Amino acid sequence: MAFVQTVLGPIDAAELGQTLMHEHILFSYPGDELDPTGTWTRADALAVATERMEQLKEHGVKTFVDPCAIEMGRDPELMAEVSQRTGMQIVCATGFYKEEAGLPYYWRVRSAEEVAELYLLEIEKGIGSTGIRPGIIKFASSDPITEPERTVMAAAAIAARESGLPIITHCENSIGAEVQQEVFTENGADLARTMIGHQDQAEKAQQLIDIAARGSFVAVDRIGLEILSPDDHRVEMIKAVLDAGAGDRLCLSQDHICSLRSPRFPFEIPEHLQSVAEQLLPLVLDQMYRRPHTFIFTDFLPKLEAAGVARATFDAILTDNPRRLFGG
Questions:
Q1: Quick check: pTM over 0.85?
Q2: Nearest by Cα to 263 from 39, 27, 71
Q3: Considering its fold, how many domains does the chain have in total?
Q4: Could you tell me if 180 and 149 are in contact, meaning their C-beta atoms sit under 8 angstroms apart?
């Protein structure tokens, strides 16, 4: 029997049910809590997340995986309260984010073994004084992958090897999957327990098929983020992966946020694009966190079905594949 660690304790992997493998209760950029224009409150975040979980339950979702990195607003106690209120099974992560937007300075100069020691402490003892244990390991890389990220990548593999937890990754611009798989293998991680994420921007579906052929699960997990890639392109890639017989290695999700703590847009906007950005900002924020998490069911699933993907196939991707990723 394989167990999955949720924020409220372990469950049998067979109890996961329909699972969204990459979503967020709360996301934050380091330092945004110092912004005097901020109006975010924990009570508001709790209310939004509770509403979103109830909406997802109406569509059959039982498990919500939140691979929020340590320094990016991870709040296991908030997740636990949302889970208690709604009955949604929530899985949180250990692991640092990419160097460009996270990876605290102190940890950039640590060895892989030292970083892995931190991860394993959280996995075995709990996060801080909360007692809440992560059920996955997060790794995020930039484009191109930096040297500190290579060290943290090895640390994720060491922690996965020692703990048996799966790894979920972030590939900036859908780049770096092969390197991730190589470093994971070199450091003893089981590729069958890794999900190589953010492949939505791949030019060709063959890239996803190759990731699956090397033994990992592959994720189209930014559904609805059309500022990065059109959903029609995602449909084409999903179809191609299914046609190639790799559907049993495919995971789907949205990388959508219930609450973003940052009061202002967290990326620098060039001066010559300011006017365009102001017009597009409502659309961008809608795709990042404002609209319901049910988008994958209400808007994306009809596109898949119109392309010939049966609802039963969609349900199997959301149910069977996460169970095998967690359960082995």
A1: yes
A2: 39
A3: 1
A4: no
